[in-house]
Amino acid sequence: MIRNRVIAGALAFASGFAFAALPSHAAATDYKFELVGKPQLSARKDIVQIRLVHTTDGKPVPDAAIFESKADMGPEGMATMGAPVKALPAKDGIYSFEVDPGMAGTWALHLAAKVQGETETVRGTVNVALVK
Fold first, then answer.
1. Distance between CA atoms of 39 and 64, rounded to whole angstroms?
2. pLDDT digits (tens, 9 = 90+) for 81-131
């Protein structure tokens, strides 16, 4: 009887170490998208620059794969009004997007990304003042 308790205790102790040794992964909520500077106007389209940041250490994530980008005027109360968004090549951890707004105002840029080593999709929204 005592022998069974000792064995059970040893197994529980060992399994605790086994779980502690497993690598921990950040959650999708440990990342955020940030606006980099003000949008620049180019050929009547706004160029918006975004940085993806790992919030626990404040470091930028330069190698994320942003696979979804869309814009709407939700901040202005017109969420059904969308604008075409075109992803541009990323450079030095800065992700650029060309947005062709139908009108000036505050637009919501909705993004979704896959971060290397993470299983969850990182999603976020950045509000940005665009001009036409």
1. 21
2. 999 999 999 999 999 999 999 899 999 999 999 999 999 999 999 999 999
Domain 25-130 superfamily per CATH: Domain of unknown function DUF4426 (2.60.40.3340)
- d(C-alpha 132, C-alpha 125), whole Å: 21
The rounded distance, in Å, linking the Cα atoms of 7 and 94 is 55
Instruction: Provide DSSP, 84-124.
Output: -EEE---BTTEEEEEE--SSSEEEEEEEEEE-TT-SSPEEE
Instruction: Give the distance, in angstroms, between the CA of residue 62 and the centroid of all CA atoms in the same chain.
Output: 11
Torsion over CA of 81, 35, 94 and 92, rounded to 10 degrees? 170
Strands 85-87 and 78-83: unpaired
pLDDT at 2 over 70: no
Domain ranges of the chain: 25-130
Contact 64, 113 (CB under 8 A): yes
Distance CA 56, CA 53 (A): 9
